[in-house]
Amino acid sequence: MPASPEPQQTIALVVRHNTAGIDEPVRAIVDFLRGAGYRAVFEAETATHVGVDGVEAMSVEQIGEQAHTAIVIGGDGTMLGIARQLARYHTPLIGINQGRLGFMTDIPIDRMLPALGEILNGKATAEERSLLEARILREGKQIHCSVAVNDVVVARGTGAGMAELKVTVDGQFMYNQRSDGLIVSTPTGSTAYALSAGGPLLHPTLAGTVLVPIAPHALSNRPIVVPDTSEIVVEIMNGRDISVNFDMQTVASLQHGDQIVISRSPDTITFLHPEGWSYYHTLREKLHWNEYPSSDGKLK
């Protein structure tokens, strides 16, 4: 008997909202995928704002259960949003940059089709990234739980005074901190808010979690990297209008005594890059390490 044909692999497209001129490159990707024998589908919200007809829409859950890969077209914010939702399904992600920085959406849109061809033909570098899981406890009871690709940020409200936070790591007291807040970041998030607050860069494969104070009252409060096996507890001791953000998604109205319990998530996300991709090249390009001033003072 002849062998049964392999089922057609599904590839989902997730596209950033309100992006001028995006329909043409999206249509080009859909045509490319179909020409290569794949079934192209849109994430449900993408289907409502992209003007490309004849493409089936799927929920995030359906994508997680059925899709071989998800292609994300936008900036790092778009990637963060879908990566959090797909993490539990372990769906590999390909990022095409239609934003500004693009640490995670790293493929230039003018190279998207050759890069996609390479990756889908197996000439890819797979890179696994860790996530954080955070639970909010009030009087010992969990009131919220979420994951973060970049960071969990505890911060005071606009116009409010300093927040006072008690931090323990693996049950050991670390410090009471008066500051504008605290960033608890993955290695992926070390190039985001944590970097702007003076934190260190962590290579994505490093098994660490970085704690970065935001404008601490005591100048001796410095960033610290702890093992990513640690359980970090941040307790709200004092302050007004304190909130916690998961990749900038806010949970507000924290109360004195609330605890944010942060640990490494059991799930991970996988980014697929073209063969030969280098994290250091990304840093040079995005952080302009390769630039130096010319005689007229301009960067080149």
Description:
The chain is an alpha/beta fold and 300 residues long. It has 2 domains: 10-122, Rossmann fold (3-Layer(aba) Sandwich); 131-266, Tumour Suppressor Smad4 (Sandwich). The chain contains 7 helices and 18 strands. The protein has helices at residues 23-35, 44-49, 60-66, 76-86, 112-120, 193-196, 279-287, and strands spanning 10-15, 39-43, 56-58, 67-74, 93-97, 107-108, 124-138, 141-148, 151-155, 163-169, 172-179, 181-185, 208-214, 224-227, 232-238, 243-246, 249-251, 259-274. The strands form 3 sheets. The chain has a 6-stranded parallel β-sheet, sandwiched between helices. Strands 8-7-18-15-10-11 form a 6-stranded antiparallel β-sheet. Strands 14-13-12-9-16-17 form a 6-stranded antiparallel β-sheet, with no helix packed on it. The chain is globular, with a radius of gyration of 21 Å. It starts with 9 loop residues before the first strand and ends in a 13-residue tail after the last helix. 40% of the residues are buried. Mean pLDDT is 91; it is low at 1-5.
Q: What's the short version?
A:
With 300 residues, this protein is of the alpha/beta class. The chain is built from seven helices and 18 strands.
Helix/strand-derived category reads alpha/beta
- The protein's oligomeric status is single chain
* Count of extended strands: 18
Kindly provide the radius of gyration, computed on alpha-carbon positions and rounded to a whole number of angstroms.
21 Å
CATH class of the largest domain: Mainly Beta
- CATH arch. level architecture of the largest domain: Sandwich
Point out poorly predicted stretches. Answer: 1-5
Family: Belongs to the NAD kinase family.
Subcellular location: Cytoplasm
Active site: 76 (proton acceptor)
Main location: cytoplasm
